Write the structure tokens for this entry.
Amino acid sequence: PWVAAFLGYASGVHAPGLTDPAAALTAHHHLLLAHGEATAALRAALPADRQISLVLNLAAVRARSAGPLDVDAASRVDGLANRLALGPVLSGASPRDVLEDTAAVTDWSFVHDGDLRTIAAPIDALGLNYYTPTVVRGGALPGEPRNDGHGVSAYSPWPACDDVGFDRAPGPRTVMDWPVDPVGLYDIIMRVHALAPGLPLMVTENGAAYTDAVGPDGHVADPERQAYLAAHLGAVRRALAAGADVRGYFVWSLLDNFEWAYGYAKRFGIIYVDFATGRRTLKDSARWYASVIAAHRAGERHDDRSGSTRRSRQ
């Protein structure tokens, strides 16, 4: 719900293009409420063995320093990005500090008795989307560039966070200008595992956009994407070893596609699409990923990006 609510209603970079922070908070709540009501309707209509889940676009939020302003900024952004969804969904409670931090934006009168109980309807699994970490600091000045990776807009997607600055994490970046940091995925998985130890998890979106082209030999070489995926699969493996119940991992995306407000400019696919002709070409990362899946199915494990495998002990 975060993407649709805050990028659609606060910063306006996505549909419906509004720039009203109170409307963003209202939309976020009602998206969660719609999930809860849909869950109840599906439970009533489907056989008891059918499974129902929800996907959250969570953020690995980090303070730039241990200073009090930076730590407070991280807490506020984490509240909006993570706890405002995790609290209602997993425990039926909204984080009190988020309600207090945003009191100047809204009085939250749109939350009615019974809403949180509806949102907390039990689910059978939780999907997690992750791409890049979020580094924040306090004391940002008015008009300061906001490097949060969520599109260009004069309006912030973060209600009541006008004094929060966003910095890029160190390391290589994708063409989205998103830093590559698989530790963030591990941190998110383990955080949700700690909050809901018995809840099966799935990584429902994870991937990277790079500048891809079909070479003279007909191949699409994308070693950076392959490295990205390998590193993040390694983070999932670490989480599994630490006890998290991760049931699946899905690359974003199978095909180059229409990428929100960026249109066709950002290629996330492991399959190259010639948008003029519709022709599709497997990128090298797709062939590599197929070999990872095959090795996993055979009980083997990829140890590195060269394609070597060994028998898994799991």
Summary: The chain has two domains: 1-169, 185-193+203-314. Residues 122 and 149 are 32 Å apart (CA to CA).
